[in-house]
Design goal:
CATH topology: Spore Coat Polysaccharide Biosynthesis Protein SpsA, Chain A
Number of domains: 1
Structural class: alpha/beta
Order of helices and strands: EHEHEHEEHEHEHHEHHH
Helix content: 40-55%
Strand content: 15-25%
Distance between the termini: 43 Å
CATH superfamily: Spore Coat Polysaccharide Biosynthesis Protein SpsA, Chain A
Radius of gyration: 16 Å
């Protein structure tokens, strides 16, 4: 395997100019040459999201609104052997390029994909409790969410069918198809904005997320779950 992987970062966006600007600036500052390009798949933003992406040098494409559809379109437009799918408000902690290089150099690209550890940019005890719960979910249930990123080789991504155009639960769907044995958790945090938890309340939002997951496993269509999530 090549010593220097070519990573294409794919970010779905919708009206998130401020968060995207911070994430793109962070990637540029910590990249260390591992990123081959950034694709922003926008779902129809009405703020300055698209302008922010273009000013940062990202490739911008228009996609059908919905995170699954946008991620799928972004992957189709991206170049490179590896994909790193990120949310617009998620930033891998400094040192992430070394972790990515180490992972890529020592795995069979058709047998392994990786996610980061979950962390919130909030000092409250509630944030630490939620992080503990997510660590348990990620390790015991092998179920990281999209805000932990997904590093996957193009060939493996295509073999499992890629992201499906789902309005919600697209991250759970692809992780289930990926399977526990293929999933590696990197020893690096992905730091996500806690703004939604601060706004809605940690308990309320956590319970809503859990309810959505439960409905999904019960077979409720994601388009109906999306109404509850919204």
């Amino acid at each position: 395997m090549a010593d220097q992987p070519e990573i294409a970062v794919v970010i779905p966006t919708l009206d998130c100019a401020a968060a995207l600007a911070a994430t793109l600036a962070h990637l540029a500052a910590t990249d260390d040459g591992v990123v081959g390009g950034v694709v922003v798949a926008d779902g129809g933003s009405r703020d300055g999201t698209v302008a922010v992406a273009r000013m940062a040098g990202a490739q911008v494409i228009e996609a059908v609104r919905g995170r699954g559809s946008q991620l799928r379109a972004g992957a189709e437009a991206a170049r490179g052997d590896w994909f790193l799918f990120l949310h617009a408000d998620t930033r891998p902690a400094p040192g992430w390029p070394a972790a990515v290089r180490g992972f890529v150099a020592h795995v069979d690209p058709l047998a392994s994909a990786a996610a980061f550890r979950f962390r919130l940019d909030d000092d409250r005890p509630a944030a630490r409790r939620l992080e503990t719960m997510v660590r348990w979910r990620s390790r015991v249930l092998a179920l990281p969410y999209g805000d932990q990123g997904l590093l996957i080789h193009r060939a493996l991504y295509e073999r499992i069918g890629g992201y499906r155009p789902l309005p919600l639960m697209e991250d759970v769907d692809i992780i289930r198809r990926l399977g526990r044995r293929r999933l590696v958790l990197l020893a690096v945090d992905a730091v996500t904005s806690a703004e939604r938890y601060r706004r809605d309340g940690y308990l309320c939002r956590s319970l809503r997320n859990l309810a959505c997951l439960g409905l999904y496993f019960l077979g409720v269509p994601p388009r109906l779950i999306a109404r509850l999530y919204a």
